[in-house]
Amino acid sequence: MSKELLGALDTLEREKGVKKDIVIEALEAALASAYKRNYNQAQNVEVNFDDKKGDIHVYAVKKVVEEVYDPRLEVTLADATAINRGYEIGDDIKFEVTPKSFGRIAAQTAKQVIMQRVREAERSLIFDQYSQYENEVITGEVEREDHRFVYVNLGNVEAVMGSQDQMANETYRMHDRIKVYVTRVENAAKGPQVFVSRTDPGLLKRLFEEEVPEIYDGTVEIMSIAREAGDRAKVAVRSNNADVDPVGTSVGPRGQRVQAIVSQLGGENMDIVEWTDDDAQFIANALNPAEVIDVIFDENNERAATVIVPDYQLSLAIGKRGQNARLAAKLTGFKIDIKSESEAEQSLESAAQPAVEAADSEADQTDVAAEAAGTDGVESTLNAPSADETETSAAENTDE
Fold it and tell me: Which of 15-24, 59-68, 229-238, 345-354 has the highest mean pLDDT?
């Protein structure tokens, strides 16, 4: 058993990468626990594994005391000095208590410890391996499906793809090979758990890096992505080289590059637009293929804008079920309100009308005030006594 155990430890270290010292330490602890459990011993038991010969020795550790109260834990000074004169009160002495029948228990315990360490090592290796693939694209094979997940075999581990990560226009069948995006890797109690997605915008970015060398080497940069997986996506790109057209480079000759990506995503439509520092121009680009007349920013909200488009392009700018406007808003980070040219003019006229009515009202009030002032003047003149009447009244007063 000892030679077999040593061989197993060497194989474990060589093939699984599990250090022999770690296994031996775990084995000694497990054997001590097994000895206490099977032989009803106290907690003062130590197990020593000889990594040269493979022998196992069990020791009971006892403390040297003047008077013994528990012979399982203590030994008298007289008994201790009989073994070695150098022992003193308070010293610990190891007594070998290895049972002859302990070999079977040791073998069973060793097997359990080694299997446990193998599982832990495999879990650790898988976690270390696939944690490096986080935020990367990897090809896997569909194994099975239930009401919660599609299970994808990545080689050493079975990844899971939740319903929110599955594309609505795709059906996943057993043995289908698909490209998935690793969103996260968790070291769970039951082992490493890998989560993958077909809907994450990161998948689209990685596919562009695979198909467009200029994106992979950084000449053209993807600035933002808005995606409704399986239906339509918008990608904003910019060039770090003035001589390279970012949109044309991403689309490729006769659209070959972008078409290769569309094919991998089940026909998902792609809009490639140029990213720019000018927010108004970027919003106009994001609403492609619609033509934009003007972009008006909200004074009360710096991330909101009203976009004016020709009347005949209003439905194109909004898109089916509002999709084009929705994706443009996600791509730019702006709240976008789209209005037709005639609607915008009516809004301006409606806003101007109260001002005209207010001006007319003010003028009417001025006229009324002027008329009132004129009438009072006439009445004052009519009611005032004449000069002759004044003189007659004065003469009468004199005669009296």
Answer: 229-238
Secondary structure (H, E, C), the chain: CHHHHHHHHHHHHHHHCCCHHHHHHHHHHHHHHHHHHHHCCCCCEEEEECCCCCCEEEEEEEEEECCCCCCCCEEEHHHHHHHCCCCCCCCEEEEECCCCCHHHHHHHHHHHHHHHHHHHHHHHHHHHHHHCCCCCEEEEEEEEECCCEEEEECCCCEEEEEHHHCCCCCCCCCCCEEEEEEEEEEEECCEEEEEEECCCHHHHHHHHHHHCHHHHCCCEEEEEEEEECCCEEEEEEEECCCCCCHHHHHHCHHHHHHHHHHHHCCCCEEEEEECCCCHHHHHHHHCCCCCCCEEEECCCCCCEEEEEECHHHHHHHHCHHHHHHHHHHHHHCCEEEEEEHHHHHHHHHHHHHHHHHHHHHHHHHHHHHHHHHHHHHHHHHHHCCCHHHHHHHHHHHHHC
**What's the pLDDT at 228?**
94
Most confident of 162-166, 184-188, 385-389: 162-166
The pLDDT of residue 161 is: 96
pLDDT band at residue 2, thresholds of 50, 70 and 90?
Answer: low
User: CATH classification of 132-197, choosing from 3.20.20.450, 3.30.70.120, 2.50.20.10, 2.40.50.140?
Assistant: 2.40.50.140
Determine the CATH number of domain 2-129. 3.30.1480.10
Q: One fold for both 2-129 and 132-197?
A: no
Domain ranges of the chain: 2-129, 132-197, 356-397
Query: What pLDDT sits at residue 370?
Result: 46
Looking at the predicted structure, is the pLDDT value of residue 388 above 50? no
